[in-house]
Amino acid sequence: MARAKTGGFSEDEVQAAAWARALAHPARIAILKVLAARRTCLCGEIVDELPLAQSTVSQHLKALREAGLLAGEIEGPRVCYCLDEAAIRRMRRELTALFDDLETPDGCC
Q: Is-contact 72 80, C-beta < 8 A?
């Protein structure tokens, strides 16, 4: 897969793009909602909540983990996932600031 050029962009811009990529699939949104609702680390139960194969769920979990939104624990051969709540708060704060910056005060166009 080709890697995007990120040189010349701020760390905040690169991070916002990583979050946007991580949130760009409905399965990933669903995974985040499942984890938020359960408020605990889940292992195989995530697969039971989604209409997807285990391997597909694993790929989506990997994308969320790479974006820094999940924390995980290894329990033998299984990895249990939970939300990284500090990362979720940071994402919310920074994306809110981004969208505030994008709004035009006079409602242009």
A: yes
The residues, ordered by sequence, that sit 6+ positions from 23 with a Cβ below 8 Å of its Cβ are 29
Residues present in the chain in total: 109
CATH top class, domain 11-99: mainly alpha
pLDDT tens, per residue, the chain with 109 residues: 445 676 789 999 999 999 999 999 999 999 999 999 988 888 888 999 899 999 999 999 999 999 999 998 877 778 899 999 999 999 999 999 999 988 877 766 6
Q: Is the dihedral of CA 98, 66, 88, 23 positive or negative?
A: positive
Place of tokens 């939300």: 83
User: CB-based burial of residue 83 (10 Å sphere; 0-12 exposed, 13-18 middle, 19+ buried)?
Assistant: buried
